[in-house]
């Protein structure tokens, strides 16, 4: 929780929050938020989810109990030990939203940036990634922040506009193997079936917006765009397939990857788990329109929590769980590396032993006596002098049999004549 420069030390016990005076001045009295974090869906007219646990904590806060001024300097501010430092991308997002002092050099220009946040999500067929089935687009105009208090989260989320497009040529292709596709479950409006040839013009209209508030002398001026996504690289490549190159657009002044920001904050990088960590209740993920909305919401919630709003308990629980998973993963990696090293050492010993055996076999004839060598030579010569026996053919066998029969017949005739 951030306050003015005169904020005193913070001391927390269960659901009570007490502020103690600082030597710099009176304690900072935070105004209780006028809302509960909830998702307002366009086209439905009623909130989709809320956080009763956080509401009870805030409503149960008692008025601060002040200690004597002498004790104020004895206490030090308490902060969660697992809370990581604010990543630069998140700090820049907070400055864009006006909830943090604008210290980045991009705000040094005299012209107000007032960017439009554009989030893109693309779904492709699992068996053929070249066949794009859905496009989701969520946009938020930072000029809509005028008159909205940073603590009014529900009012801010209502300003997000979400669209869902189904590619007509691939509308029959629905993912089932790796993820469960749900193109008919768009939760923030109506889906539009369009041919693939029309997506390029839709993307141009999304990223190239004329600035209606520009003076007459600069009517061609376009709005600044902040591109938001969850793993930006994949969505940028998919847009290129439709002939729209994001690198060629000067209107895009910045890019924000919600997955990178979540990882830097120690939160889950998976979109569904990230939404649960932020206190949300996502429905029908892997619908491109829903995913685009949840991605933009996650980016805004990460910017607001811990700055303009207190963090929900689910964020700290998610951080602790991620730390535990990383520790277990590190132990497994170390064990795997140890086994790999042991196996490598064993293979080296086996290879060295085989090399020694081959060397001994090569040197053995040189160590034998001359007599043994001559004896081996005689044996080999006698084997070579023996004629090879040729197996008689069937015709030869028959000829021999005929000759034998003739001789026996002749012998019998001679015996009959009394010659023998």
Please describe the topology of this protein:
Layout: E1 10-13, E2 16-19, E3 38-40, E4 47-50, H1 52-59, H2 69-72, H3 88-97, E5 116-125, E6 128-141, H4 153-158, E7 161-167, E8 191-194, H5 199-207, E9 225-229, H6 232-241, E10 252-257, H7 258-264, H8 271-277, H9 288-304, H10 313-367, H11 370-385, H12 394-417
Parallel strand pairs: 5-9, 7-8, 9-10
Antiparallel strand pairs: 1-2, 3-4, 5-6, 6-7
Task: Tell me what the structure shows.
- This protein is of the alpha/beta class.
- Among the domains are: 10-72, no CATH class; 88-310, Ribonuclease H-like superfamily/Ribonuclease H (Nucleotidyltransferase, domain 5).
- The protein is 41% helix and 15% strand.
- It contains twelve helices and ten strands.
- It has helices at residues 52-59, 69-72, 88-97, 153-158, 199-207, 232-241, 258-264, 271-277, 288-304, 313-367, 370-385, 394-417, and strands at residues 10-13, 16-19, 38-40, 47-50, 116-125, 128-141, 161-167, 191-194, 225-229, 252-257.
- A six-stranded mixed sheet has the order 8-7-6-5-9-10, sandwiched between helices.
- Strand 5 and strand 6 (128-141) form a beta hairpin.
- Helix 3 packs across helix 9.
- The termini are far apart.
- Mean pLDDT is 77; it is low at 1-81.
């Amino acid at each position: 929780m951030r306050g003015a420069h005169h904020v005193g030390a913070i001391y927390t016990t269960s659901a009570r929050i007490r502020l103690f005076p600082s030597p710099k001045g009176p304690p900072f009295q935070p105004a209780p938020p006028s809302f509960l974090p909830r998702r307002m869906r366009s086209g439905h007219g009623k909130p989709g989810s809320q956080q009763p646990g956080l509401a009870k904590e805030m409503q149960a806060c008692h008025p601060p109990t002040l200690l004597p001024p002498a004790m104020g300097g004895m206490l030090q501010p308490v902060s969660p030990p697992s809370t990581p430092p604010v990543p630069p991308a998140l700090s820049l997002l907070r400055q864009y939203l006006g909830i943090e002092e604008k210290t980045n050099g991009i705000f040094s220009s005299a012209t107000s940036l007032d960017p439009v946040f554009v989030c893109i999500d693309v779904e492709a067929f699992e068996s053929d990634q070249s066949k794009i089935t859905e496009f989701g687009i969520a946009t938020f105009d930072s000029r809509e922040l005028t008159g909205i208090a940073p603590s009014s989260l529900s009012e801010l989320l209502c300003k997000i506009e979400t669209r869902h497009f189904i590619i007509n040529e691939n509308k029959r292709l629905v993912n089932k193997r790796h993820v469960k596709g749900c193109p008919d479950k768009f939760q923030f409006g109506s889906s539009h079936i369009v041919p693939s040839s029309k997506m390029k013009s839709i993307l141009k209209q999304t990223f190239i917006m004329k600035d209606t508030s520009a003076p007459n002398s600069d009517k061609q001026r376009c709005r600044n765009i902040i591109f938001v996504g969850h793993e930006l690289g994949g969505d940028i490549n998919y847009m290129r397939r439709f002939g729209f190159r994001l690198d060629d657009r000067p209107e895009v002044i910045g890019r924000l990857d919600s997955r990178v920001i979540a990882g830097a904050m120690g939160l889950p990088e998976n979109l569904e788990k990230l939404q649960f960590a932020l206190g949300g209740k996502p429905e029908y993920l892997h619908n491109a329109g829903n995913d685009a909305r949840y991605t933009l919401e996650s980016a805004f919630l990460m910017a607001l929590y811990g700055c303009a709003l207190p963090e929900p308990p689910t964020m700290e629980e998610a951080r602790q769980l991620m730390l535990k998973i990383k520790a277990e993963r590190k132990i497994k990696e170390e064990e795997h590396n140890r086994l790999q090293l042991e196996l490598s050492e064993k293979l080296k010993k086996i290879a060295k032993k085989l090399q020694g055996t081959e060397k001994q076999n090569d040197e053995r004839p040189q160590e034998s006596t001359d007599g043994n060598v001559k004896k081996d030579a005689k044996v080999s010569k006698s084997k070579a002098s023996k004629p090879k026996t040729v197996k008689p053919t069937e015709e030869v066998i028959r000829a021999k049999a005929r000759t034998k029969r003739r001789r026996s017949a002749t012998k019998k005739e001679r015996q009959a004549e009394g010659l023998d």
